[in-house]
Amino acid sequence: MAFNLGNCPRCGKVFARGVHDVCPACVKEIEEEYERCHDYLKEHKGVTIYELSEATEVSVRQITKFIREGRISLEGAPNLAYPCESCGMLIREGTICDSCRKRLSRDYELVKLMEQTRQERENAAHTYQMYNNNNNNNDQR
């Protein structure tokens, strides 16, 4: 039986991979961080993610992970939101804000249009080349 060993992405220690993607010591630390956040939110429902992070000494990134995992609910926490992965603007759902989503959609459509134009140019050049080759062959007869 071979062990699937790896380095913990959080602390760097070698551990046997299994149920968790971090070592047992980090799992325990993450659970303690969750408890601190959970307990603080019970008493301070109106805090922002930055205030929660400062008060509990848990990173904004880890709190965001708790929210995305559904461990921390935004319901009943009107000021709690997490940063957009693209621009950092605070959002309450998804991974990116509406503005970044629209920008990405526009960029995607632009790339599609550019690809279509490139393809049309290649086709036109190929057709022109075939036409010229055909005419050159007819002239040689």
Give a structural overview:
- The strands form 2 sheets. A two-stranded antiparallel sheet has the order 1-2. The chain has a two-stranded antiparallel ribbon with strand order 3-4.
- Helix content is 57%, strand content 7%.
- The chain has 4 helices and 4 strands.
- The longest helix has 43 residues, at 98-140.
- The chain has helices at residues 24-43, 49-56, 60-68, 98-140, and strands at 5-7, 14-16, 82-83, 90-91.
- The protein starts with a strand and ends with a helix.
Alpha plus pi helix count: 4
Give unreliable regions as ranges: none
Mean pLDDT: 90
Helix content: 55-70%
**What is the straight-line distance between the termini?**
77 Å
Radius of gyration: 27 Å
Given helix and strand content, the structural type is: mainly alpha
Overall form: elongated
Biggest sheet strand order reads 1-2
State the major sheet: 2 strands, antiparallel
- The ordered string of helix (H) and strand (E) elements is EEHHHEEH
Q: Strand percentage, roughly?
A: 5-15%
Query: Total number of β-strand segments?
Result: 4
SSE blueprint and pairings:
Layout: E1 5-7, E2 14-16, H1 24-43, H2 49-56, H3 60-68, E3 82-83, E4 90-91, H4 98-140
Antiparallel strand pairs: 1-2, 3-4
Helix pairs in contact: 1-2
